[in-house]
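chain below, 373 aa
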Amino acid sequence: MPAELDRTALANVRVFDGERLLPAAKVVIDGAVIGTDASGARRLDAHGATLLPGLIDAHVHLSGQTSLEVLADFGVTTALDMGSPWAVVDPLRGLAGTTDIRSPGKPAVAPGSLHARIPGSPPEAELSGPDDAAAFVDRWVAAGADYIKVIVSHPGLDQATLDALVVAAHRAEKLTVAHASSFDDFAMAQQAGFDVVTHCPLDRPLDPAAAQQMKSTGRVSVPTLTMMEGIVEQPHPPGASYAAARASVAALHGAGVVILAGTDANDARGVPANIAHGESLHRELELLVDAGLSNLDALRAATVLPARHFGLTDRGAVAPGMRADLVLIDGNPLEDITATRRLQRVWCGGIERDPERAPCSQPTVDTRRDHTT
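prediction:
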């Protein structure tokens, strides 16, 4: 069971503020939020370790509470589910001491398409045409969807249906997310006006015009390079190339498109590749850096930027009043992105995870009650 909410003062900790690594200072965890009053707090000397906002994976698929526990142990304190069954997702909302989630319910798919044949895809997620769009959106909004996701594929939903889904979702004031893993799918998603496009082409790289269109319209990319890498390591369609995905990320980044870190982590049946929860986000950061993002850009892609673009205004930064989702690591990830793997401690909503569960050895820390500040 997670520890009771408590007041903890982290001393001698270097904070990543979204732009830089600040000099060693003190951060107070006061219940579920970051506070300012350290009186009576348990003192934890971090010995110059780095404190990050809790990491956010902008594309996962959940299978139960075990998914959350693994994510949390790897420092992923918020996960944006992208289409797990509602019966799985709903009981996982708001659980204390573990990863916090958001979800769209099931994505819209075309009848008979590859995604419609994935085990567990419900018939009510299938749309025959644009006249079905409003009812689909209304159904999932009423069920509690945080955003609307749509599968853009060939064969798949036609352009008129995609357009209608975006209109209906925006009328309901919901963010729209498109799955698009080919050049032509990406073009259809852009034409329809989706806010977020997840995955990137495996057939041929996005050209400068497509990247500039993403930038000029303010769209956001979640390339899921970890999944793209996983797909090409399996038997895959002729012409699928990780190099195309990597080049697409480089083009998007070069055009100034906002890129978020997401992995497509899942343990489902009938999908192109299974990607491990938690660990894969650290791999995603490394792949984003390999594709041309700076270490700073990669860290922002897993903290402040997904919080901002998915409307999670209470997280993504280490500041008073923010949710106490925090990750303490050994090293400076602005110099070495693999430092994010050297986890020491994790807090989810102010509740510390058992340090023995962290996927690396723990250094000795000093703890005492602090009555001096």
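The first helix runs from residue 65 to 73. Residues 361-373 have pLDDT under 50 and may be disordered.
thats it, cya
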